[in-house]
Design goal:
- This protein has about 230 residues and is an alpha/beta fold.
- About 30% of the residues lie in helices and about 20% in strands.
- It has a 4-stranded antiparallel sheet, with helices on one face. Strands 4-3-5 form a 3-stranded parallel sheet, covered by helices on one side.
- It is globular.
- About 35% of the residues are buried.
């Protein structure tokens, strides 16, 4: 893959063979972000687990103290008085059965997170085939299946993110924007890492944090020393 001149110049600042301290790595990510837009800073964490086994799954959610820097659109499936509660909490869309054909047949996906009350999961379950592959299916572990829709919506709007393993046992999560201060990015990163470390399955053997890399959307990856985290 051919890289642009700006990327090549920026990449020279990063020693690929080195594992940096968190503060150093964040400083480098900010310096190597050369795009004209406010790039997202992402963490990529490879874990020493095998996600094919149910007892080694790592999944949950955490509220980043400084948010992600992007506006998140929330869809809530609810009925009765929970509809007005969700609207009052700031949900962008609230509905029920009537949204099924809109999503299934018309391909409507103007939302980033889906919350549902438990009594609506029968309805939402019918959307499993379309929401599942996009990672949008509500989940009790992530706090998106709940009767407390006010807290769920407010947390998401405040910067709650979900983390989960991909097929290669890597977690990919945003920790803010390049425009954030180093302190804000460091606090967000440490909050995410604390949550992932606490979520370590009891059946996981050997080194849990195998590798940790952070990068901006268009910038080179910067490795962090996993032994210096937590």
């Amino acid at each position: 893959m051919k890289r642009g001149k700006k990327y090549t110049e920026a990449a020279k600042l990063v020693d690929r063979g080195n594992q940096y301290e968190v503060a150093e790595a964040i400083d480098l990510v900010k310096k190597t972000a050369v795009a004209k837009f406010d790039e997202t800073v992402e963490a990529h964490i490879r874990l020493g687990v095998d996600g094919r086994h149910a007892d080694q799954q790592v999944r949950g959610a955490v509220v980043l103290p400084h948010g992600t820097g992007r506006t998140v659109r929330v869809l809530v499936f609810a009925k009765g008085d929970k509809v007005s509660e969700a609207e009052a909490a700031g949900a962008d869309y609230v509905g029920g059965e009537e949204l099924i054909p809109k999503i299934q047949n018309e391909g409507w996906f103007e939302f980033d997170v889906v919350v549902a009350t438990p009594d609506m999961m029968g309805v939402v379950g019918r959307l499993g085939r379309v929401l599942g592959p996009k990672g949008l299916m509500p989940n009790p572990k992530a706090g998106t299946v709940t009767m407390d829709v006010t807290k769920a919506v407010q947390d998401i709007k405040a910067g709650k993110i979900e983390y989960r393993l991909d097929k290669a046992n890597i977690i990919h999560c945003p920790v803010g924007k390049v425009s954030f201060s180093e302190e804000q990015l460091t606090e967000n990163f440490n909050t995410l890492m604390d949550a992932i470390i606490k979520a370590k399955p009891s059946s996981a053997k050997g080194q849990y944090l195998r590798s940790v890399t952070i990068a901006s959307t268009m910038g080179p990856g910067v490795k962090i020393n996993p032994m210096r985290i937590g």
